[in-house]
């Protein structure tokens, strides 16, 4: 099977010329379909930069970066926008739109698919919210939801389009341990049901056990640590 | 429910409207700001159009095909030419009639409070009507007697309660240019910002008021063509026959001369300036609202970019917001302006009307105002970098 993520010889630096500061050095990484990979490492090790490159949010500078069959080195702006719509994002902050209800926030992702009818979008958004346990909060605005509930809406928004790849940046950072646990288990379950691949950046030791593979990053370089000691899914 | 099944597919609620309606207070501030700018613009344009429509009242109601005026005249009644030239004009082939028209200013004493002011005098030969105003033409026989006049009921109240006194049957004399004169009839023509009111008198009474020298000088010659005569040919022939100091103008040219003169008045320029100021105020207000809206939601816009929305789709949201603000703000703006127009009309006696053209003009200005503000505000949106969201 083709890997969902295939990175070879990736280098990235901030700044220009003599002031250029390397943040990613010779990254090689392949992630297979259905894999759940956790990326850990200290602050400033380059995790977020790697994630944003994979998500098509930054332009790649050197090396090869192939995501869902799209080569990102030298990709056009249009290709990047198209790729982003095929990836599910979960942010550290929930980043929901305050003016929209939970259901409307989720359907913002569905609106990018013109083939879906209004009714289909409602059905899919509502079903997805029910799947994350918020069937009774469909018409609530973010102001009236708890932190864990907001993050669950954000997960519903990321998963409702059934993406083949989910990128999550510290999704549990703003949550207490119980809701953090619930959120990752939810991601794990939905990923299994939809057969998607997850790359999760986290500092949170309590959730490492959900991963098939844990990768450690330091000073812009990947250090492989193999599978977690805890039970694998 | 009866409306349960709509025949049309449901559309997504525009994000622009969700953003705007979520913050009610900001929306209200924005709408009142736009209404305020609209009222400013409407008032300026209202004054302006009242001024111009009023100034062309008399030239527009003259009944003729060609008009002779002194070449240096910048407006009707500005300069005069010798009456004898009118007889030469009458002899030009194609000319059916050539009639005299006097248009001057006389002193006027308000009979109610004895204050001296001025009034505009229209004079003609009662046997040769020159105006297309039935109320005047029907009563011309009434001004043939000495010291008799017709009075414009739409004159400013500062001239005195002339029309009510006439209707009540009072026959008090009024002092015009030092002579006692009596009102024999009334008509409705309308004043403007520069003219308090009008009276119509005969050429003989004009001579009595202003003397023989003045009565020999015409403010315009009103020419009617014979049926089938060519306007251009006759005008060319008139220019050739008459001395250089006399111009022959068509009716449209006469009205245009009047308009272009008053447009150059400082008042006209001030109104234009006021209109631009209103527009600028509107742009600043809409820009402020859109800018703070974009700024407050920058991370939300970045998120939308990250989940696959293109720059173009997000720019559209801001432009939609601008359009919604413009359309919603225009409505209270035009309603308040209508009220203020009628208040002004009552206060001044000058007709300040909401014309369709002016309404459309201000509406399109409001839209341009919104789009312009949005164009400035979206520069901020471009800086919504999805890489910053992570």
Task: Write up this protein.
Chain A is built from six helices and ten strands, in the order βββαββαβαααβαβββ. Chain A has helices spanning 47-54, 77-84, 102-110, 118-131, 147-159, 177-194, and strands spanning 5-14, 21-31, 36-40, 62-67, 70-71, 87-90, 165-169, 197-201, 213-218, 221-224. In chain A, a hairpin with a 6-residue loop joins strand 1 (5-14) and strand 2 (21-31). Chain A has a domain at 1-86 and 164-172 and 198-233: P-loop containing nucleotide triphosphate hydrolases (Rossmann fold, 3-Layer(aba) Sandwich), CATH 3.40.50.300. By secondary structure, chain A is α/β, with parallel strands linked by helices. Helices cover 52% and strands 17% of the residues of chain B. Chain B has two domains: 15-54 and 265-388, no CATH class; 72-243, no CATH class. The chains are: A alpha/beta (233), B alpha+beta (390).
Summarize the structure.
Chain A is an alpha/beta fold.
Which characteristics define this entry?
heterodimer, A: 233 residues, alpha/beta, Rossmann fold, 6-stranded mixed beta sheet, 10 strands, disordered C terminus, B: 390 residues, alpha+beta, 2 domains, two-stranded antiparallel sheet, 14 helices, disordered N terminus
